[in-house]
Design a protein that fits this description.
Chain lengths: 179, 179
């Protein structure tokens, strides 16, 4: 079960480090950017989980209504021999149907990229049929881990969607603008 | 097999991105630091794999002969929605028995930290007896992946050691100074 290990690694090696620091990063961002991230929903890390595991490197490519705005303040942590390893989160500006802008801290769950790339490499021993099942297992494992983590409460939102059918743009749009 | 997925993720999501860029990063570092990393052996990423999975955040804590020197130039990649994600590698200065300094780009294999932390969390379903077996599986899988990767040839050195018995310092010292 590749997805089980990847979900734990995503939590232990990333979310457990950045989520407890998110509120502080947002409040120092707001001081310098006239309180742009004022609403409760905006102050969470939105983690995109497309069950197809098709992950774009740049969100603004996916949908013209999504534009990169700025980074949150960077987090530096000495980790496994790398001094001052950098953790960075991007803020995006998203336009709704009436062209009103909303702000959102959002990124894909990177381990899905590993699942996608593994299914494309024969020696990894992992087929594209496995991919959907592993993506679902990744989501349910991550959800359980986060629900029992006190450190990360109210700091995240998992946005899972089945983009096999509808176009990526539709999936993105409906999820974001429903905020 | 958790270790199988973690080894593939370490290659696809990290080594495959940073190793092909290493030679370029070293040559630009050498221009500004009077060719400090001149020797062939030094121009590789040394990846520490202690079979105990005991990973220190800061290598200078492990052994007083090892001192952090500087970072290599940073690598920025748009990845999974994070714009300009930062990848950083640290250079250390290591003194041998005769107090002569050697330079080395070295870090621990981050996934071993995940293995260690998972074995300490009951809900991860992973015991500390599994840990040694998974650490060995991680090493052999990673070794096979890297040996068949053209992108990463001659850019790395896996330094595996059984630090269960000897003190960490001895293991560190003997490996480094044998360069
Ligand atoms: N030494 C080191 N320096 C790095 O910059 C680095 N980046 C990744 N890795 C290791 O390679 C593997 C693949 O990385 P991926 O990004 O797919 O998964 C990552 C990713 O999903 C998430 N994550 C970690 N750091 C970040 C980050 N800075 N931004 C976004 N996501 C991150 O959490 C997972 C586990 O991270 P680590 O536990 O640090 O170990 C990773 C992993 O073993 C690194 N290792």
């Amino acid at each position: 079960n590749v997805a089980h290990g990847l979900a734990w690694s995503f939590y232990l090696g990333y979310l457990k480090l950045v989520l407890p620091n998110l509120k502080k990063a947002i409040s120092s961002f707001n001081k310098e950017n006239s309180n742009l991230l004022w609403c409760e929903e905006t102050c969470k890390l939105h983690i995109l989980i497309p069950l197809s595991c098709k992950i774009h490197s740049n969100l603004s490519e996916v949908d013209s209504n999504i534009q990169f705005l700025k980074d949150l303040p960077l987090l530096y942590i000495d980790r496994a021999g790398v001094k001052g390893r950098v953790y960075k989160n991007s803020i995006y500006k998203i336009f709704d149907e009436d062209q009103r802008p909303h702000y959102c801290i959002v990124e894909y769950a990177t381990p899905l990229l590993t699942l996608y790339e593994m299914s494309g490499t024969t020696s990894a021993g992992f087929s594209s049929e496995d991919r959907l099942q592993q993506a679902k297992l990744f989501y349910t494992t991550l959800k359980d881990i986060l629900e029992s983590s006190l450190d990360c409460r109210n700091c995240y939102r998992l946005v899972v969607y089945d983009d096999g059918a509808t176009s990526e743009d539709e999936a993105q749009n409906t999820h974001f603008l429903s905020q």
